[in-house]
Design a protein that fits this description.
Chain A: InterPro entries: THDP-binding, Transketolase_N. The complex is a heterodimer of chains A (284) and B (343). Chain A is α/β, with parallel strands linked by helices and 284 residues long. Helices cover 38% and strands 10% of the residues of chain A. Chain A has a single domain, classed as Thiamin diphosphate (ThDP)-binding fold, Pyr/PP domains (Rossmann fold), CATH 3.40.50. The longest helix of chain A is centred in the N-terminal third of the chain and has 19 residues. Chain A is globular. Chain B is an alpha/beta fold and 343 residues long. In chain B, strand 2, helix 3 and strand 3 form a beta-alpha-beta unit. Chain B is globular and about 55 Å long. Classes of the chains: A alpha/beta (284), B alpha/beta (343).
Chain lengths: 284, 343
């Protein structure tokens, strides 16, 4: 589906503004439902902006274009963030924003491939994306297709054993066409991720498994761009991972300050306030 | 509950004076007198792959035990050894299917159905991807005990929307199902018989050919209708021969596709002639062919005398396969005895 009103060409707007737009759209969608994984969406907005408006090759008018870079959202509950990015990219029409999570919407609360243009896989059962990405990367190589596979996962998924099966396999098959992005916000449902299974030095662990590993401030667009360029430009026959340390609820200070923020509770009157706070921080 | 009370007591079986050793992992299923075909799945897949370059093969360290090694040796470039990692096996197969390939992913039935179920459900079935799951050691075809005996795989996959399920009887079925699986645009779970697989069906019915979704009468009979799948069709046919001496006339309806079930044929045959209807399956009596047939008949108001032959709702014992088939009622003698007892 092609947007009636498509955003301006990519080069004309700064990445910061793209990230800001993603945050704003996500907040507007969450307001529609009165809930949503807004903490994750605000936190990962910069990673999505750098991915969709710097790194990825795609055609908004043709989401199935064979030459596109594949972007897998392993974390289905982050769908609200990807919908915002897909709207910003012109893959989803912006006028569907108000349908988020509604009956008959193409944007269900958890991401599913069959519902949404640009949603490549059905995520949500965690620990699936990277394994599927391994198969897709093998398939692209078999076809001689130079496109890259990106898999966006969360730090919580580092606890799933299937993630590590895929990590080992990507090394075994020397998948230099696979880039894994880990949104490391150190929050999972029951508390800090590092208190569960993700304790320890993250990049060295991936490095030990044979990956090219980088760690960046996932809310620093310049750092993200540099890391994505390094990952894409690398000639080593190994898969690449970028661990993106992000802050939940980034960009809305009073939500950032909230303690337990895996599923952020936002009172009905706070959505407008959150949008006001975001507005104040709009990049000039 | 104390630990001691949880441990099953070892009670030596005294079924006969001669003890049979637990045979190799894959015991021969061949009944006396049938010809066998070596690795029918591996050869059928290799032949088809020569004409269809979308086909790729994947295994999780069990290619030799699923006959996929035949394909791997013939087309090493199209074979993916995924290591001992079944969650990855099916996820990666899904990824290859997304890129336009038709992956055949093989392992043992226990590992696909129990260990990798969520990955098959969400990465493959929910998206209707054409991944073909081919699994050895279905039901009670190994004496290695519950870790390797997939007695509930059909029940598990019957619950999965969109999954086609095949339970082949013999080498003819195994060879015939491979092109049918490719022709079906969606996920398929097939039980596999591997190694030296007997050729049974065409001996009883020379024009028999596997057809996806079709039940076929292999043998007519007036007294009893056995509705069977998998190796139990072989057992039922042999039992039927045996029962001729007792003047019992047994029909055998072979149902190699468990889902979608050919309910029209099953209903028509079960409604005909007042025969005793018996289902026979190499699977737990919970959730397999028997209950599927019962449901198909009752919902159509067809109520013949009805009995089920299948494995009990239990973790089965280890031992030699012939011993176990006798113990759990799957041997030819026991099938014949059960039929006679119900008449």
């Amino acid at each position: 589906m092609i947007a009636e009103t498509r955003p301006a060409p990519r080069a004309n707007m700064s990445l910061a503004l793209r990230a800001w737009n993603i945050r704003r759209k996500a907040l507007l969608m969450a307001e529609v439902q009165g809930q949503g994984y807004i903490g994750q969406a605000l936190g990962v907005a910069d990673v999505l902006a750098a991915s969709y408006f710097h790194a990825l090759d795609y055609r908004p008018e043709d989401p199935e274009w064979e030459g596109r870079d594949r972007f897998y959202l392993s974390i289905g509950h982050y769908a609200i963030a990807l919908y915002a990015a897909l709207m910003e990219a012109g893959i989803l029409p912006e006028e569907e924003l108000a349908t988020y999570g509604m009956d008959d919407s193409r944007m269900p609360m958890s991401g599913m491939a069959s519902y949404t243009p640009g949603m490549e896989i059905t995520g949500g059962s965690l620990g699936h994306g990277l394994g599927i990405a391994v198969g897709a990367a093998l398939g692209l190589k078999r076809k001689g297709n130079p496109a890259l596979v990106y898999n966006l996962m969360s730090d919580g998924e580092l606890g799933e054993g299937s993630t590590w099966e895929a990590v080992m396999s990507a090394t075994q098959w020397q998948l230099d066409n696979l880039i894994c992005l880990v949104d490391f916000n150190n929050q999972q449902a029951d508390g800090p991720t590092r208190d569960a299974l993700a304790v320890g030095a993250e990049a060295p662990k991936w490095d030990a498994f044979g990956w090219h590993a980088q760690t960046v401030d996932g809310n620093d667009l310049d750092a993200l761009v540099a890391a994505l360029d390094a990952a894409r430009g690398l000639t080593d026959a190994k898969p690449r991972v970028i661990i993106c340390n992000t802050t939940m609820c980034k960009g809305v200070d009073f939500l950032e300050a909230r303690d337990s923020n895996h599923f952020v509770r936002v009172e009905a009157d706070e959505w407008a306030r959150a949008l006001d706070v975001l507005e104040e921080g709009k990049p000039q | 509950m104390t630990r001691a009370s949880m441990i099953r007591k070892y009670e030596p079986r005294r079924m006969s004076d001669t003890r049979v050793a637990t045979s190799a992992m894959i015991a021969s299923l061949a009944a006396e007198g049938y010809d066998t075909v070596a690795a029918p799945f591996g050869h059928a897949l290799t032949d088809l792959a020569k004409r269809d370059d979308r086909i790729v093969g994947l295994s999780a360290d069990l290619s030799k035990y699923t006959d996929l090694h035949v394909f791997a040796q013939a087309m090493p470039d199209r074979f993916y050894q995924m290591g001992m990692a079944e969650q990855l096996l099916f996820s990666a197969a899904a990824g290859l299917a997304r890129e336009g390939f038709i992956p055949f992913a093989t392992t043992y039935a226990v590992f696909a159905s129990r260990r990798a179920y969520d990955f098959i459900a969400m990465a493959i079935a929910e998206e209707n991807l054409p991944v073909k799951i081919v699994c050895a050691l279905p039901g009670l075809t190994t004496g290695y005990g519950p870790s390797h005996q997939a007695t509930e795989d059909l029940a598990i996959f019957r619950g999965l929307p969109g999954m086609v399920i095949i339970d082949p009887c013999d080498a003819d079925d195994v060879a015939g199902m491979v092109p049918a699986m490719v022709a079906h645009d969606g996920p398929v779970y097939a039980r596999l018989l591997r190694g030296k697989v007997p050729s049974v069906l065409t001996r009883h019915k020379p024009d028999y050919r596997f057809q996806l979704g079709r039940a076929q009468m292999i043998r007519e009979g007036d007294d009893v209708l056995v509705i069977s799948s998998g190796i139990m069709t072989m057992r039922a046919l042999d039992a039927a021969e045996k029962l001729i001496a007792d003047k019992v006339d047994v029909a055998v309806l072979h149902v190699p596709t468990i889902k979608p079930l050919d309910i029209d044929t099953i209903r028509a045959e079960a409604a005909r002639g007042g025969r005793l209807v018996i289902t026979a399956e190499n699977h737990s009596v919970n959730g397999g062919l028997g209950e599927a047939v019962a449901s198909a008949l009752l919902t159509a108001g067809i109520t013949p005398r009805f009995r089920m032959i299948g494995l009990p709702d239990a973790f089965l014992e280890a031992g030699a396969l012939p011993t176990l088939h006798d113990m759990y009622g799957l041997s030819v003698d026991k099938v014949a005895d059960q039929i006679k007892g119900w008449l």
